[in-house]
């Protein structure tokens, strides 16, 4: 009797152990999925949070026979809510469904199109495509949301060249990525010739629109129009439709006029840049009797380019300080603190020939020092340091430096003269930045601007600069000595005004600097 009663207990213990072992296998599998793969499972894998292939979401009015909203086996969001049945998700899917049906009616999309949606976090656009019959559709994002979205970086789309008939970027996401040119290049690479790319952006100004077009080398603009968004984060949308050509057609398919035969390096300043010049603050046309006050106060009137236009569609953001002097002279005191950067990270170049400031820059991270003098060619120059009696007392600690060709006369103002190396600034600029970059330049070179600016025009490098802050040096009235002009400079205020006027007339956004 005693022996017989022990058998059920042993069997029960065995079953409990098997059950615990099964639970352990499940937990180990779940831990692997969550901690190792770091994303949703494949459809055939075991996991708790993936969206199964049997997911059936019907958007009311989105397609033939659609009349209800339903979801079977809906996935759960990280907040515990039903992500794919949330009001925001449904509204987005409805919106994209309407957008895609319009594109089908206009011939830019078909139900046979192999389609890709880029930078789509949860795949509402992918679902909308599949729901209206474009079944061969997939999305990419840095984190997968299967089965609608796979994991991929914007600069490395995991598909071959000429794969897709249709590529879509919604939600203004192209302007939010750190390097929009990389994503635009990948869109062009994976898009088939005669395929269509449709992009939704939030920027409305002509500068940003043309900057967007310049991202694309092989696509031609088909149309651009404004539509209403579906939520408060992007209430107004500009929809841009591009078609990929068989050959490179130029940036955005916009052809530029050919330069004159007598100027092979002449550049073309487009209309959207000239529009910004017309919106800039007026120049001071009458010579100030107290320039140390008038020009300094005028800095408050400056209309910065980023305050007039969206700069999101640029490849890089570069600030060049020509005649930088100390870090606190303008980089630290003005550009870092006051220039409106629209949350962009700028590469900073400091060009300064005076050795007295070089050690300071070696301690500053993120700033590249060029310890030479900006000039019109590569050659040895004379560098003269002297004080200007018209400057503030703080500036007298270290006099301003002026450069002259080696055969020129140095020291005529009682300063110290040394030999330094000059470099061709215009050629350096052309080798460092491109038209796709956003370039800001401040120039304070003690009169050498009358050499450097013409050289920038001669080489075409002037068209690489989006905004210039220029201090023009002339025989201005001295603060120390009423009724006396500075003998340090030979140019007049009229010549400076002509320099500013010629820059603006050529479509260059330049500001009077002090």
Coarse structural class: alpha/beta
Strand order in the largest sheet:
3-2-1-4-5-7-6
Outline type: elongated
Number of helices: 13
**What's the gyration radius in Å?**
32 Å
Mean pLDDT, all residues: 83
Approximate helicity band: 25-40%
Largest beta-sheet characterization: 7 strands, mixed
Task: Report the end-to-end length measured between terminal Cα atoms.
Answer: 108 Å
Extended strand count: 17
Low-confidence stretches: 1-5, 33-81, 252-264, 390-396
The percent range for strand residues is 15-25%
- Order of H and E elements: HHEHEEEHEHEEHHHEHEHEEEEEHEHEHE
How many individual domains? 2
Protein name: Methyltransferase FkbM domain-containing protein
GO molecular function: S-adenosylmethionine-dependent methyltransferase activity
Pfam families: DUF7870, Methyltransf_11
Domain DUF7870: 281-358, 419-514
């Amino acid at each position: 009797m005693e022996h017989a009663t022990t058998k059920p207990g042993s069997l029960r213990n065995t079953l409990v152990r098997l059950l615990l072992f099964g639970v352990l296998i499940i937990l180990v599998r779940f831990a692997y999925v969550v901690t190792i793969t770091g994303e949703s499972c494949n459809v055939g894998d075991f996991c708790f949070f993936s969206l199964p292939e049997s997911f059936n979401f019907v958007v009311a009015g989105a397609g033939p026979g659609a009349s209800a909203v339903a979801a079977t086996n809906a996935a759960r969001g990280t907040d515990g809510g039903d992500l794919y049945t949330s009001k925001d998700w449904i509204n987005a899917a409805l919106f994209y469904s309407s957008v895609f049906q319009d594109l089908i009616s206009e011939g830019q999309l078909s139900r046979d199109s192999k389609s890709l949606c880029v930078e789509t976090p949860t795949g509402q656009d992918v679902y909308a495509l599949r729901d209206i019959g474009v079944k061969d559709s997939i999305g990419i994002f840095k984190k997968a949301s299967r089965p609608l979205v796979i994991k991929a970086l914007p600069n490395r789309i995991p598909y071959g060249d000429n794969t897709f008939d249709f590529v879509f970027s919604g939600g203004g996401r192209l302007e939010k990525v750190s390097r929009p040119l990389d994503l635009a290049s990948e869109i062009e690479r994976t898009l088939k010739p005669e395929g269509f790319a449709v992009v939704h952006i939030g920027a409305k100004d002509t500068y940003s629109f043309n900057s967007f077009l310049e991202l694309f080398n092989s696509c031609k603009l088909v149309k651009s129009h404004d539509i209403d968004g579906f939520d408060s984060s992007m209430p107004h949308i500009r929809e841009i439709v591009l078609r990929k050509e068989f050959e490179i057609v130029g940036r955005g398919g916009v052809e530029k006029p050919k330069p004159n035969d007598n100027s092979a390096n002449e550049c073309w300043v487009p209309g959207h840049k000239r529009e910004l010049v017309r919106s800039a603050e007026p120049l001071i046309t009458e010579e100030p009797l107290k320039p140390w006050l008038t020009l300094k106060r005028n800095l408050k009137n400056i209309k910065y380019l980023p305050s007039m236009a969206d700069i999101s569609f640029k490849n890089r953001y570069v600030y060049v300080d020509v005649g930088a002097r100390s870090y606190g002279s303008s980089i630290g005191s003005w550009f870092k603190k006051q220039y409106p950067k629209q949350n962009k990270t700028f590469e900073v170049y400091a060009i300064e020939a005076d050795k007295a400031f070089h050690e300071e820059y070696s301690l500053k991270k993120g700033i590249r020092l060029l310890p030479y003098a900006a000039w019109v060619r590569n050659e040895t120059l004379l560098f003269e340091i002297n004080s200007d009696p018209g400057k503030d007392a703080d500036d007298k600690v270290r006099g301003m430096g002026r450069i002259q060709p080696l055969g020129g006369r140095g020291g005529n103002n009682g300063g110290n003269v040394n030999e330094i190396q000059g470099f061709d600034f215009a050629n350096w600029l052309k080798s460092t930045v491109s038209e796709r970059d956003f370039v800001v330049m401040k120039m304070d070179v003690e009169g050498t601007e009358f050499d450097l600016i013409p050289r920038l025009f001669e080489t075409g490098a002037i068209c690489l600069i989006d905004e210039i802050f220029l201090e023009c040096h002339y025989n201005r009235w001295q603060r120390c000595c009423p009724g006396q002009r500075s003998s340090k400079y030979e140019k007049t205020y009229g010549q400076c005004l002509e320099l500013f006027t010629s820059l603006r007339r050529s479509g260059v956004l330049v500001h009077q600097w002090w």
